[in-house]
Design brief:
Strand content: 5-15%
Number of helices: 51
Helix content: 40-55%
Number of strands: 23
Distance between the termini: 34 Å
Structural class: alpha+beta
Strand order of the largest sheet: 2-1-5-3-4
Length: 1447
Amino acid sequence: MALETEAKNIAATGDATATTKASGKAKENNNTAGGKKNLNPNQQNQQNQSQNLVNGNGTAVDGPVAKKKGKKNRNKSPTEPTAEPVDAGLSNGHAEKAAGEEGDANANVEKAEAGAAPEAEGEDIDLDALHDVGITVNISSPGADLLCVQLSSMELVQEIHQLLMDREETCHRTCFSLQLDNVTLDNFAELKTIEQLEQGSTIKVVEEPYTMREARIHVRHVRDLLKNLDPADAYNGIDCTSLTYLNTITQGDLLDKKKTRPDSVDCTPPEYVTPGVYEPPLLPLHPNVKNAKGPQALKVLTTSAWNPPPGPRKLHGDLMYLYVVTMEDKRFHISACSKGFYINQSTDDTFNPKPDNPSHLSHSLIDLLSHISPSFRRAFQTIQKRRTMRHAFERVATPYQVYQWASPTLEHTVDAIRAEDAFSSKLGYEEHIPGQTRDWNEELQTTRELPRKTLPERLLRERAIFKVHGDFVTAATRGAMAVIDGNVLAINPGEDSKMQMFIWNNIFFSLGFDVRDHYKELGGDAAAFVAPRYDLHGVRVYNAVDVEGLYTLGTVVIDYRGYRVTAQSIIPGILEREQEQSVVYGSIDFGKTVLSHPKYLELLRQAGKHLKILPHAVLNERDEPVELCSSVECKGIIGNDGRHYILDLLRTFPPDVNFLKLQDVKISKELADMGFPIEHRHKLCCLRQELLEAFIEDRYVSFIRIAAVHLQQLNAKKQSEKTEKPVAAIEGVEAEAKVNGAEKTDDNEEKKEEKEEKEKPTSSETKTAEAMVNAIREAQSNVATSNEVQAAEVVKRACAAVGSLKEKEFDFRFNPDVFSPGIRHVDGEEGTCSSLAKQKVLVQEAAEFLVLKQIPAFIKEHLSHSSPPIDGQSLTESLHSHGINVRYLGKVIKMLGQMPRMDYLYRIAVLELIVRATKHIYYTYMQNTEPLHLSAAISHFLNCLLTNGPVNPAVSSEEAHKKRGNGGKHNKHKSSKGGKGQQQQQQAAGNQNGSSSGSSNGSSASDWTLVTPRSLWQQIRREAKAYWDWELDCDSIDSAVSKFGILRISLLRAFCLKVGIQVLLREYNFESKHKPTFGDDDIVNVFPVVKHISPRATDAYNFYTTGQAKIQQGMFKEGYELISEALNLLNNVFGAMHQENGSCLRMLARLSYLLGDAQDALAIQQRAVIMSERVNGIDHPSTILEYTHLSLYSFANGHVGMSLKLLYRARYLMVLICGEDHPEVALIDSNISLILHALGEYELSLRFIEHALKLNLKYFGNKAMHVAVSYHLMARTQSCMGDFRSALNNEKETYSIYKSQLGEKHEKTRDSAECLRLLTQQAVLLQRKMNDIYSSGKLTSDLPPIHITPPSMGSVLDMLNTINGILFVQISQKDIVKVRSEIEKHLKANSAESEVNDAIKSIVAAANNNGEAEGGEPKEAQEQAAAAGTQLTNGEKATTTTEATSS
């Protein structure tokens, strides 16, 4: 099996038994990752059994190693007895949800409690199939000690190979076999299938003869071992390597640290961390760049120019020749033969393959090199030590490549293997399928067809899907770059470069231009540019629905050097036929000719149920009605493999009428006042799936409400008549079934599925819905007498009121074609599903709902600042989760601009808008640039964007004009957007579309030299107006900085990440007056920006959500077990590294801490930080969050200095990304201040807390609890400094806030009063002493010592917990039920708004009266104590599910 890129395999098995330090840690961490078993105290000894680090349950099969298994193993599903009962168990886990929807919320609580036990059993049955028995074996290898390892019987023999290649003493072997009793073991056999293998067997490592392929693999492996520490790959963005700096910042592994004494800590913050920093420096972003690389072992190791061996030598067994230059400057030519490696007598100019004298043959190249070069031996040992010291997570490959936006200068070394990889047509070594490129389509579709009945089957299927998808994304990215760099021959080379299409490695590539006027009616190139993104969106939702028998193409959209490239897998047989012949469903000419197909209708109908797509009929060219279950553009093609494919899914969802100018649409007055409809650049705007779900949810709630009101009226009438005898309750039940029947059956199923597809609606929403249903139930029990007719009437009225499509049941589905031009619909009669008018109204109402309900809801949600967005990316994600498209950003900014308390969000939104507008301009700008001038052009553009200083383009204009003649030749895909129309637009600068193409006349490739800061900012203004309908009143970066408080460095970061630029890591002087800030050497690289779908791990997700439900009910233990299980399943599917594993780890650390195990919390959180740095990026918002959590846990473990360093890092990153003015900074500053206070650094502490107070006052208002706490902390610090007067004033503020918010009786108010009393006493004492001194006139006598007690570490920790929103609340089951019923009472009584607030108040009261909460603001208490909106961390709500699923 090929074991090349060591980077991927190292620690793929992350073996935990190594005698090295690393594995010692691994063991500690291990029991946190370990499966459920570790949680039973009697099985703590698990710890010693080495479970695999990668996935705690020891099934390393399921770790990233699976990546290497390729085809051979793909269909070998584990053969354990299939554990069916699990489904019952899991569904039971969800019974709570279902019950919640249907109504009876009280039942809901009881069910949840009752459900807990059986559910757990169900899971256990199931999971024992996964956690398999461990066995201990000895491995003896030549020249090394006997090695004892703990393995799982489900592992493949292959994993022992990996394990040996990762261990320090055996890593230099690649070509060996494993033998048991002289029988060679099959690499792909599971250990449990080997009969002679038992506890304590000894497996022998036997060196095998090399082949050509094995020799090359060995050389590659040696190269990887030598450059293992070098971060160059991470900066160059290859091999899925990425950076992590946690261990640099903590100077070694946190878990090895001894507790520090407070007085030995150096705690002075660096200059750029103290409050008041203006432009943070860039260098600290990558600490330790200097010595990251490790020692150099060899000058050169490359394949020799004498290769390949000539005939005679081949017959002597020569395989290949190598050339080595050692650090001692000796040159060697080395031969590889089947026995191993030896030095031959060739020199650079004579070929003499005879062995050198004395000859020394070694099976391993490393042994040979150690023999000939002492400095190699020393360096190699050092490298090995450092390699094995690193945390396993630092070495595993990430699932997708993460690119760095800044990079130090990397020295370029001689590396033949790198050169070979770059130019060989082979894509790495296709170890799976020798001798052919991979058939991506076949792989992607076969993995989807794998069975999915039982949990092991589903895990196997999801792992295979994820693995193939990851490989496909990597290959597609590589291919797209090759296409744009001009390295691939087009399949239609005769045509215009914009129309060319490419096939590379069985992937089809096309460029985002409007080819053959396909999109002419829809907006030309602008439409062609966004179509791939919408298409990808469609692929994502159809994939999520996962209908058996319906296939989508593997799709990746790559933006690179200003071009958008779509990469798709190829439908078998499509290239042989014309498109017209192959399409059997849908239309290829936007609805002139339309086809339909019964099988497609059946499949799409199933998917449409989830996606809320309404089946509708349109007329074809012969005026016959044709039924469709998707948009007209969606094409169905049956491939040669007999599979039903759908493609062109860009109109999966209904159009957004707010951005379409339509004749027959009357837009409501409110929207017209806001400037809608805005004519967009293209006509492809769609509503998001999240929006449709929120809209339907909203309508459902009002539907129930209206029905309830009508029923109560009926009821009142009945009461007055009182003549009829009560009929048997059956009729009432029937009526109820009638009322709730229709919507309950299908809607709840759909809702349940929706929930699993998307994030769950906030608990308050579901509560409202539950309460409504309850009201209906009550009303019905009273109306037991009412007959069916009346009940039906009620439903009918409610349906009419909310605008349901069907008359007698709640039905909301959308027709995506309803406003498409050129499509002729078959209009049904008024008031039925197929009535066009009704469908149009529905689409309009959804668009209106977005503006009038969702945008305000988005802003309202962020008013509490509970998990505030930190940069443009987190803002975009938050908007999307509310179903708001980014094209509404202008409207969102207008609303935010009127709210001073949302100042930071306003700034982030403006920054995002500027970056996006600039991106549009930059893409056209880049398309007009010759490859020769790329770095000059990019640095010129950055100068124009970020500075006002001199911007002289590096190419003089004469030179540029000379090139005009042959400009077209160099630049293949030159954008020919020019032409006459363009110039006319240019003159009419007011013309909205003019701005899109900026000043590119397309006439010459050197137009970029004409851009100036002024012209660029004018273009940005025009773009902001045209695209977002927002007036950006800035004509230069200076005015943007002064008006919005944007930091230039944040703008640089955001822009580089958005368009894929890598700049040199150095300090940039943006104010420079004499020479341009960016020179062309400052642009290090350009990267692709890749968009793709992310396969999900469904079972893990279900465990995770069930675990969260448990936590919300206060059952932390059970929650912990479920979430550890979720982590195991995630490790099974995704391998060790993935964003979702990260959110699981963060949650587990949080729970460990709440359950009082701070050490465990530290170990888990450390992995969460490393994972976030590796998978999200070193300056990603979630990395900052992880850092702040880690600092709290390390303080709790007595690492005081560490926790400060971590907070300093978090604060630096925050300021770099969005500046100091942000609610999260207030939290970080409060933490820093507290720890400095504990260390007795009062002056410093005061600076931080003053800053935090300022921010808290700004964002929370002067009556908020945050502010009270800040005042209290200031008073504490000042009293320690002896400034009692100021301390008194501040403590008074605290007291008055507590008194007004909580009342005098509350313990906090009482504590504050006590504090005031002590301070007053101290102040009086001080004053008295001063007076004595003055009266006796002896100023010389020493001041008497003032009695100041420094705070204890314990009290500081309590305070830290308080401000970070951690409460150790012990709530009994009784209280939870009590709180629930409180909530319901309130829900029934009031309207949605007040009910939530009152419920919350009562909860707070309940929590506080229990007196068990140790401090903590009511805000936190309310949110944690009682599943109202469970807030689990500084800022992430317990609904971290959104993080897990929104991607």
